[in-house]
Specification:
269 residues, two-stranded antiparallel sheet, Alpha-Beta Plaits, 10 strands, alpha+beta, single chain, 27% strand
């Protein structure tokens, strides 16, 4: 089977965000500001962001900004390889005085997604296109009396086994990821860091439609439900593929470093 072509695939950028607790900023204050004002900070064309709060795992209670960008070319128009803005990006902000004021206000609560914030740009190696998770908002306010739409984003770090070459693992993924069947309302992506602070690091980005969809299979970290066991029995080739994967690299979940995040806000423009 030929390698999966990702030349026009989305780019995912992750920025660590920290609130200024020394100044007395609370998570509730920060999230309220982002939902009511921060979401009006415009995005570059072809970009969108989602603010995530750690649910469980390594960074529970901490924040992450997830950017999804149409492709690497659109990223490179606005962000240079060293993390600095391009001239086109500088002009974008010069033309938007109100946006600059909103960013200054954001910084009163915590860090913003720009240098010197720790970040990584990841390229997409594989994704499950058969997933029932459709493209759409990761966070959306509900109508009065309704819960908001809030997707779960799992970020699971991976590492190669001794003497396994990167191209060997990546070839295996390219030739076998079609065997993956995700739980209903779950979607698998495998990413590889290509610039920023986590170069050459692999992560599984698992997008889950809701907390309910997460809890249906894993109500607690690494504790599977009977439904999860039944699903594995029904899709034995997926389970076999995962066992083959584990011969080359670590796998999602304990004891690997990971965080499951909940979406708490998303850009409007």
């Amino acid at each position: 089977m030929p390698r999966h072509d990702t030349s026009n695939a989305p780019v995912f950028s992750l920025y660590y965000i920290a609130i200024d607790t020394e100044a007395g900023v609370t998570p509730e204050q920060f999230e309220a500001f982002v939902r009511h004002k921060g979401v009006h900070i415009p995005c570059y064309p072809g970009w969108r962001w989602t603010l995530l709060r750690g649910l469980r795992g390594e960074r529970a209670g901490q924040y992450m900004m997830l950017y999804e960008i149409d492709d690497a070319g659109q990223r490179d128009r606005y962000l240079a390889a060293d993390g600095n803005q391009t001239e086109l990006a500088r002009q974008f902000w010069r033309d938007r005085r109100e946006a600059r004021e909103l960013i200054r206000e954001w910084r009163k609560y915590g860090t913003f997604s720009e240098l010197p914030t720790i970040y990584t740009d990841y390229r997409l190696l594989a994704e499950n296109k058969k997933s029932t998770v459709a493209d759409g908002p990761r966070y959306q306010e509900g109508r009065p009396g309704e819960e908001p739409l809030a997707r779960v984003i799992g970020i699971h770090n991976l590492a190669l086994r001794p003497d396994v070459r990167a191209d060997t693992f990546e070839r295996f993924i390219a030739e076998n990821h079609h065997r993956i069947e995700d739980y209903p309302d779950w979607k698998f992506r495998l990413l590889k860091g290509e610039r920023g602070n986590r170069l050459d690091q692999y992560v599984v980005l698992m997008e889950i439609a809701s907390l309910a969809a997460l809890h249906a299979f894993y109500p607690d970290a690494d504790i599977a439900t009977a439904e999860a066991a039944a699903f594995a029995d029904a899709y034995r080739d997926t389970k076999k593929m995962y066992e083959e994967w584990k011969q080359l690299a670590s796998f999602s979940g304990s004891p690997q470093i990971y965080t499951d995040y909940l979406s708490v806000a998303e850009s409007l423009s």
